[in-house]
């Protein structure tokens, strides 16, 4: 079997055609028709009024926090079990990330823990739709409304997932997405913000483009902003991907259905899968397992032996509170700590056919059970 990679992008639509148009016309930087069209179509896809294309997913979170007025001394509640970009963005505005634990079965942030962590300093909540599955946005938005605290949805991994019929990103004050090379759809690198609030949209747009006043003379800047714009070339690729997003999502779900069936047949009791109550809530950016106590080997040893068999795997995110930038030796979040030490990401991309998935599961079974 050839090497099986954790993630491989698939380009099967207009990506090359649109990219060549950028090159042929010379519109390769932040101006050009594809940026505007990508924004418009992505807003429509999410069911939001506005969308703003950016250079990557991390800066979308930074702009969202700026737009909401988050500043030094403020606290932002977020899961400790997430990718570090979420916490880094909070630090970028000088605020303090307040970490909370996850639900043991969905692995998403536990809404009850969010409410317990609220103080008079809490100025925002950032739920993260982990590995492609929507958080319980009903409970989170109830908390948001009860305490008048805005929500920024970190939907970097969950393009197209739904909660009660609504797309992720469209339920909070602002939604943030990433188009890194391994995401559901990709621009190579890029990000997008969505919102229904015109004032938030205009503030994020102002800071995204060096603070230049769009209604004034050229080179007149209202604030000290940032160069967080997406290029027309990135947007060209992203638009080609977005036009085909339902196919990409369908392939992720196909792969997940095969994995789920095989794990229940071959490794029941040895691996825990993410609980999914509503099929529309999950787009399976990553298919994942957590090794149960029946597995005697350490997670990293299992991964190393899979690598010897030419199968790439990755560990789960390490909880924020155990890593040097955010370390807190007094903190204890048992669910996140278990996930961070026992969780494995599996090859999940659209190129995974049944033969490859079966090969992954059989090799895992050989290593775990013998």
Topology as H/E string?
HHEHEHEHEHEEEEEHHHEEHEHEH
Helix segment count? 12
Instruction: Give the mean pLDDT.
Output: 97
Helix content: 25-40%
Task: Estimate what percentage of residues fall within beta strands.
Answer: 5-15%
Structural class: alpha/beta
CATH fold topology of the largest domain:
Aspartate Aminotransferase, domain 2
Give the strand tally.
13
Structure characterization notes:
This protein has helices at residues 15-25, 33-46, 57-67, 84-92, 111-117, 137-147, 198-208, 232-242, 245-266, 299-308, 334-342, 354-368; strands at 50-54, 75-79, 96-100, 122-125, 152-154, 162-163, 166-167, 174-178, 191-195, 271-272, 287-291, 314-315, 343-346. It is an alpha/beta fold and 370 residues long. It folds into 2 domains: 15-242, Aspartate Aminotransferase, domain 2, CATH 3.40.640; 245-368, Aspartate Aminotransferase, domain 1. Strands 1-9-8-5 form a 4-stranded mixed sheet, with helices on both faces. The protein is globular and about 70 Å long.
Describe the secondary-structure layout.
Blueprint: H1 15-25, H2 33-46, E1 50-54, H3 57-67, E2 75-79, H4 84-92, E3 96-100, H5 111-117, E4 122-125, H6 137-147, E5 152-154, E6 162-163, E7 166-167, E8 174-178, E9 191-195, H7 198-208, H8 232-242, H9 245-266, E10 271-272, E11 287-291, H10 299-308, E12 314-315, H11 334-342, E13 343-346, H12 354-368
Parallel strand pairs: 2-3, 2-4, 5-8
Antiparallel strand pairs: 1-9, 6-7, 8-9, 10-11, 11-13, 12-13
Keywords:
12 helices; Aspartate Aminotransferase, domain 1; 4-stranded antiparallel β-sheet; 4-stranded mixed β-sheet; alpha/beta; 370 residues
